[in-house]
Amino acid sequence: MSQLLDASAKGVYAISATPFTDAGDIDWPSVDSLVEFYMGCGVQGLTILGMMGEAQKLSGDEAAELTLHFLRRVNGRVPVIVGVSNPGTANLVKLSKTAMDAGACGIMVAPLTGLKTEAQIVSYFGEVVAALGENIPVVYQDYPQSTQADISAQSFLKIVDAHPTVVMFKHEDCPGLKKLTQIRKGCDGGARRYISILVGNGGLYVPQELARGADGVMTGFAFPETLVSVCALFAAGRSDEAEDLFDAYLPLVRHEQQPGFGLAVRKEVLRRRGAIRSAAVRSPGPKLDETDITELDRLLARLETRLSEGVRRRAIA
Amino acid sequence: MSQLLDASAKGVYAISATPFTDAGDIDWPSVDSLVEFYMGCGVQGLTILGMMGEAQKLSGDEAAELTLHFLRRVNGRVPVIVGVSNPGTANLVKLSKTAMDAGACGIMVAPLTGLKTEAQIVSYFGEVVAALGENIPVVYQDYPQSTQADISAQSFLKIVDAHPTVVMFKHEDCPGLKKLTQIRKGCDGGARRYISILVGNGGLYVPQELARGADGVMTGFAFPETLVSVCALFAAGRSDEAEDLFDAYLPLVRHEQQPGFGLAVRKEVLRRRGAIRSAAVRSPGPKLDETDITELDRLLARLETRLSEGVRRRAIA
Amino acid sequence: MSQLLDASAKGVYAISATPFTDAGDIDWPSVDSLVEFYMGCGVQGLTILGMMGEAQKLSGDEAAELTLHFLRRVNGRVPVIVGVSNPGTANLVKLSKTAMDAGACGIMVAPLTGLKTEAQIVSYFGEVVAALGENIPVVYQDYPQSTQADISAQSFLKIVDAHPTVVMFKHEDCPGLKKLTQIRKGCDGGARRYISILVGNGGLYVPQELARGADGVMTGFAFPETLVSVCALFAAGRSDEAEDLFDAYLPLVRHEQQPGFGLAVRKEVLRRRGAIRSAAVRSPGPKLDETDITELDRLLARLETRLSEGVRRRAIA
Amino acid sequence: MSQLLDASAKGVYAISATPFTDAGDIDWPSVDSLVEFYMGCGVQGLTILGMMGEAQKLSGDEAAELTLHFLRRVNGRVPVIVGVSNPGTANLVKLSKTAMDAGACGIMVAPLTGLKTEAQIVSYFGEVVAALGENIPVVYQDYPQSTQADISAQSFLKIVDAHPTVVMFKHEDCPGLKKLTQIRKGCDGGARRYISILVGNGGLYVPQELARGADGVMTGFAFPETLVSVCALFAAGRSDEAEDLFDAYLPLVRHEQQPGFGLAVRKEVLRRRGAIRSAAVRSPGPKLDETDITELDRLLARLETRLSEGVRRRAIA
User: Residue D14 forms beta bridges with which residues?
Assistant: First the structure.
């Protein structure tokens, strides 16, 4: 039985890809191998059915089945958060209950595209939390680049004040460093209860975000073990080593972080690393052409070179 | 067995609401009564699972079940188009096949939110049509206010040229009168094959659009019989009477056409007319408060007055 | 010397077009005739350099010169509000001072495109009002369809509380009827000071908005005298007559209200009515083609017919 | 007298900041020192009045005066491109003529915000080029993240075919690597005339873009001499050294590239490097707080360390 997510969550929650066969079906054996890959990376948790997991291209039945399969395979080794954002609240609640009953530690919700004011977002979360009930931990996913639903730190703090089940802020606004600092200061465990802040944006600003008080990273970068080391070094007070290691991977972080297109890159890297059998993105979705492949080859070769030059050894020694 | 949709389609295709109980479940008896309401209005066809049908808030299973139920109830009396837009092409195709197997005359697809260039839209429709196969008639839904995927007449004509199964243009861009004229001229049955053009936007510009060559109307206005009369009068060359009748309803057309909020108005009018039992919009969705109800009361009372003053009698005499 | 705008403003503030010659220069004689046209319509005030005034296509020098010219010609007969929205606060302040020194009654500011949260909008208005000083009355223009800067009633009330010089809310959100009611109740002269609310959206919802407590209309509809009568009838408690009159013009209101394109229609109507010499819209801008002209001819002819049938006479008797 | 811009342009065209005093006035002595700074960096050209130059916050008179001042100071040492994008074509043309008369080599135009289809963009450029005449070289600025006006490679090629004065594509779409390749292949000097492609996005993908055939970089990164070296090394066939050098600066490139906020970082770095006297961004604009300053201090210190470790020496040896 999994424990429930709470505000003490930290480290790396990898956003899992959803493996498909070349024909576009869910590739169940690759789900298993992908879980083992993440476990081997030492991640602190997993997030499934995020945008990077192509959740919106799954049918409701597939989403439920995938949730159950993931949870069975993980089998309590790490906590699993399930993305449940949906235009209909009933669908959102149904998947949440399926996930929690099967052992998920919490669910992640982004404000709906089409919410235009902060007042509307606050009201929407009120409705969603009321529909979920008092026992399901909620992650607020702040990703306005995708949802167009922007929220200020002040309004998010209203949600924190109103809803004890909101225990984590998935930070993904960009530029968003100031907002991260405002929310960290607002939820520091003193004047207001502490909440966990995990950062996204493909990991592009991880060292800066950890320095500003983030508790960890929730992203799909295809080298999760590196992020695990970066977080561990940072937590151990070795922030320069942490950032040296991060910077060695930064060219690839940047390359994967290209909105939309980056997902195809990411799945190809996961494939090369043996985590999944096919890099296929479900239709409609980006595909790598020959130029893209050559470009990626070069970036990966350069990474190897840099690591062999000792950056990595120094960093994690 | 229903016939397939083709470019000769004309008149009024009512976009059906989806009736829910106050608790938010599909209200199956109201689906039946709503079908009978539309049949009584003399509409030429029905469109189900459009945006006005809250399709995005249904689960995949509900969408399929609702499609089957609607088709059984209509039972071939009029052709039924099924909205199948979906972020995932596999889901889109699956619902399309379910619908066509059950007797739908065709399916309606809008370009995906997130497609940014016309080239991307043209390419997307290429993929979708290829996945649907050569036997499923397709309606292109042009609703950029909702999808942010804008297309010019020129690019739409490329789609017409490439894909014989695209037989109808659901016109909903605004301002869009010039585009309608361009597409009408481009698909006039001479230089290029004819396609059917039905207009939306809540019907706000119907007389102007019919004058520019539209073949009819596809919208959810709660007085479909009026639109049927308007189209019939117009087709009979009695365009002034057609517009007189339309103008009598214009205050209400305008009121229902408020984006988002108008759906709650529309369902309330349908409820008052006995078509459905509850005006509930599924969560999250707009609700009418007391002021809204008073406002609607007044608009409906004024409509009654105007009709009793003879506008209607004159118009449809 | 003009008086300053205050919260008692009511009635019709016509948003003035900016007349250009066919070559695209400001047509100064038409500015004069247009002012006289508006005066002849009995409007309660004028607003110049709004979006409908193509302000963003004027140079800074032209804007200043036009402001001075308008104010000289009006010569205190009615109060004049000047639109000063600008990406740079220094430019905004400069034009405001030019306008106020020349006798404007106040200035109108919309939140900048690119402001993403309500907190940012509130903060922006704080900066702007601080830069303007304590003596310049400010109209908040709420037009998110154009600015993408949405604000809730609650956040607008914060601005009212913080800044005594904000005396008017130009209401143009759509759907926005609920927000209008919220702001009216929030600024009713009881718990909080009264502010004036004038409505826009081309006038599409005027009767509903007056019933909800709007103080008048600020829009560019080419028959301002009708809106004057509508407001007067409504103020006199003859709301049914007011709405009858309005509804007679509704087909044209709707036609002019088409975003972007409507401006070309409006200027053509103003030209036909003798208010300006050319209907030219400055480049880049919409142009009427032959079909558009025929369509407008028909709408105007139908309006004549309807008025001659007595609607008008009854309404304003 | 400057030469006109043509398709042979390559290397680094620095987008110049506009220096302001703390009070927000143009800081003319800093304009001079900034020009000398860029000259000292060995840039191949300058671009003034870009978005990074806060052009939209200048008055028309300031823009003209700044253009003349810059051109006088540069005095023909490198070609100068002037950003002239403006909601009004007349204003655009006026500034273009002022600039060209004073010795600019060409002007840069982005499609207007509000253009929704590629057909509209192509048409807009037709109007603009017609208004500019046949003697003013034009740079197409493709920056849809800011303009929301997306264009495909195919449509841009139509503009190239129609307008010989369009000689450069300022590439700034993101993700945009595939588009860059398509345009490079489309304008390779074979089937179609060659055009120059300079890339933006703060320089975030420079090595990948040079490998795909970009001719250089046009961005405001505060270490332009590094980009000059990167381009030179790449042109000399030493692409690994080029990328090593680039990667050493990548953490800072990424930090400056944060939309909006990055400008404040950039001006602060320019100030520290002695290029300008104040880092002030004109209101409304971002400001660095203490945390931001500490963060920047750390990034610059880390850069120093890395350079001292020999990356730079190796790279440009």
Answer: D46, D219
For residue A1, what pLDDT is reported? 42
DSSP letters for B107-173: EEEPPPTT--SHHHHHHHHHHHHHHH-TTS-EEEEE-HHHH-----HHHHHHHHHH-TTEEEEEE--
User: What is d(CA A216, CA A242) in angstroms, rounded to the nearest whole number?
Assistant: 13
- Asked whether the beta carbons of residue A57 and residue B131 sit closer than 8 angstroms, the reply is no
Ranges of residues in chain A whose predicted pLDDT is under 70? 1-2, 310-317
Cβ–Cβ gap C261/B291 under 8 Å: no
Q: Which two tokens stand for residue D94?
A: 């006026």
pTM of the model: 0.96
Residues of chain C contacting residue D56, judged by C-beta atoms under 8 Å apart: 87-88
Q: Do D295 and A208 touch (CB under 8 A)?
A: yes
Smallest Cβ–Cβ distance between D259 and the set A175, A259, A295 belongs to A175
Neighbouring-strand partners of residue D305: none
From B178's Cα to the closest Cα of chain D, the distance in A is 13
Return the SS3 of D92. helix
Report the distance separating Cα D261 and Cα D270, nearest Å.
15
Nearest to B254 among C204, C262, C289 (CB): C204
CA C82, CA A98: separation in Å to the nearest integer? 58
| Stretch C110-117: mean pLDDT | 95
Nearest-Cα distance to chain B for C131, in Å, is 36
CB contact under 8 A, D174 and A258: yes
User: Using an 8 Å Cβ cutoff, are B198 and B221 in contact?
Assistant: no
pLDDT digit string, tens, across residues C31-83: 999 999 999 999 999 999 998 889 999 999 999 999 999 999 999 999 999 99
| C29 to chain D, closest Cα gap in Å | 20
Give the pLDDT confidence of B180-226 residue by residue, as tens digits. 999 999 999 998 999 999 999 999 999 999 999 999 999 999 999 99
Residue C154 with chain A: CB contacts under 8 Å: 119
Q: What is the pLDDT of residue B37?
A: 98
Cα distances (Å, whole numbers) of residue A244 to A88, A228, A314, B87, C157: 44, 14, 9, 39, 49
- Segment B122-143 shows an average pLDDT of 97
ipTM: 0.96
Cβ atoms of B59 and A98 closer than 8 Å: no
Q: How far is D114 from chain C, CA to nearest CA, in Å?
A: 9
Alpha carbon separation from D310 to A208, A309, B49, D317 (Å, rounded): 24, 13, 64, 10
Residue in B240, B262, B250, B266 with CA at minimum distance from that of residue B307: B250
With CA atoms as reference, the chain D residue closest to C120 would be: D284
Is there a contact between B177 and C292 if contact means CB atoms under 8 Å apart?
yes
Under 8 Å between Cβ of B281 and B54: yes
Interchain pair C118, A116: CB under 8 A: no
Beta strands in chain D (DSSP E): 11-15, 45-48, 80-83, 106-109, 138-142, 166-171, 196-199, 216-219
Query: In terms of C-beta distances under 8 Å and separation of at least 24 residues, what long-range contacts does B254-259 make, across chains too?
Result: B254/B204, B254/C204, B254/C205, B254/C250, B254/C254, B255/B295, B255/B296, B255/B299, B255/C205, B255/C208, B256/B202, B256/B220, B256/B221, B256/B222, B257/B201, B257/B202, B257/B203, B257/B204, B258/C174, B258/C175, B258/C177, B259/B145, B259/C174, B259/C175
Confirm if A152 and C119 have CB atoms less than 8 A apart: yes
Both tokens assigned to D237: 């066939």
Q: What is the pLDDT of residues C227-280, one digit of tens each?
A: 999 999 999 999 999 999 999 999 999 999 999 999 999 999 999 999 999 999
Residues A213-229: tens digit of each pLDDT:
999 999 999 999 999 99
Residues with Cβ within 8 Å of residue A100, at least 6 apart in sequence: A107, A135, A136
CB contact under 8 A, C59 and D284: no
